[in-house]
Amino acid sequence: MDASHQGDFFPDYDNKDTKLVINEGVEQPPIINPYIKKAFKKKPSLLTVDQYMEGIERGDRTVLSQAITLVESYLPEHRVIAQQIIQRCQMISNSRKTMRIGITGVPGAGKSTFIEAFGSYLTGEGHKLAVLAIDPSSEKSKGSILGDKTRMETLCNDPNAFIRPSPSAGSLGGVARKTRETVLLCEAAGFDVVFIETVGVGQSETAVHSMSDFFLLLMLSGAGDDLQGIKRGIMEMSDLIAITKADGTNVDKANMAMALYANALHLFPPTESGWVPTAVTSSAVTKSGLPEILKKIEDYFALVQGNGFYEKKRREQARYWMYESINESLKNMFYENELIGKLLPDYEEAVLRGDLESFSAAGELIEKYSGK
C-alpha cells in the first residue's frame, strides 16, 4: 500500500502516540507467467519421407510413432507423405517373413492380460513384438480411452516390444482405419511378430482376419453354454482356440472347455492351408500353456511356408486391401469435394426434417459429384 494513502484507511496512523505500525506489503508478482512461452513450444515440423524412413529402419520408436500418427491422420497434406512412407515400407515388409497374429475373444477373456504374458514370453524367446491394440471409440463422443499401455506395464517397458493403441473410430470388427498400414510400418522397423488385438467378438472379424496370417481366439470356461456364446463363422476362421484363466480352481473347467472346443473344431470343413485347428488351455498368472501356444504357431508357419499357402494368403491380403484402399480413396474424394461440402449440410437437414428420403438424398449428392 502506498504510504501517502495509509492515513486514509487508518485515521490514527498520523498520531504519534498510536502503537499501530503498518509495514510495507510484499511486492506482487506479474499476472503473466514469464515462463509461459516455454510451456507452449512450437510444434515440430514434419520430417521428410527419407528422414521418416531412416528412423523407421533404424528402429527409432519415436519416429515410428510419429509416422503412424501421420498415417492415421485425416489431413490431406499428411496423406500425401504417409502414402509414400507406406509404399516404401511395403517393399521392405515384402522381403521379410513376419508373423501377423490376429487376437480376439469374448468379453472378459483377458485379452490384454494374455497379450502381456504371451508377449513377454515371445520377447524372452528372441522375438521383436509389435502390439496394435485397438480401443473401442465412443459412438457419442467419438473418443477412446487408449488405456492398453497402462494394462501392459511390463510389456510396455520391454525394449523388444512396441505397443501402439489406436481408436477403432467406428471401423467394423474393431480394427482401426489404418491398422493395415501400421502393420507394414512395424514390420519395416524390424518387428518380426505383430499382434492385432480387436475389440472383441460381436462385430465383423473379417477385417482382422484379412490382414493376419494366424487367427487366435481366446475363450473362457464356465461362462454358460460356451458354444452358443460365439458365432460359428469366427470359430471357422480360428487357427487356434486358447482357453484362458486356466489356474486355481478353474483348471478342471478349462480342460473340459478345451475338449469341447477341440471336438467342435473337428466338425468344420478342412482348412485351405492344410492346418488342423485345435484348442489349448493357458494362464497368464502361472504362464502355463504359453510355450504350447508358441509351438502351435511355429508349427503353423512352418507348414504354410512349406506348402506355399503363406505367400498365397499374403497375395490375397494385398488384393483385399487394394479394394479397401479404392473404397477409402473414393470416400475421401467425395467428402473433400468443395461442392459436396456446401450441399451436404442442407441435404442432411432435409433428411432430418423428413422432407427428403435418405436414399434419394445420397443418389442426388452422388449425381452432383459425378456431374451428371
Folded structure, characterized:
This protein is α/β, with parallel strands linked by helices and 372 residues long. The protein has 3 domains: 3-39, no CATH class; 49-320, Rossmann fold, CATH 3.40.50.300; 321-370, no CATH class. Helices cover 48% and strands 11% of the residues. The protein has 16 helices and 7 strands. The chain has a 7-stranded parallel β-sheet, sandwiched between helices. Strand 5, helix 11 (232-237) and strand 6 (240-243) form a beta-alpha-beta unit. Helix 4 packs antiparallel against helix 9 (179-188). The longest helix has 27 residues, at 309-335.
Summarize it.
The protein has 372 residues and is α/β, with parallel strands linked by helices. The chain contains 16 helices and 7 strands. The chain folds into 3 domains: 37 residues, no CATH class; 272 residues, P-loop containing nucleotide triphosphate hydrolases (Rossmann fold, 3-Layer(aba) Sandwich), CATH 3.40.50.300; 50 residues, no CATH class.
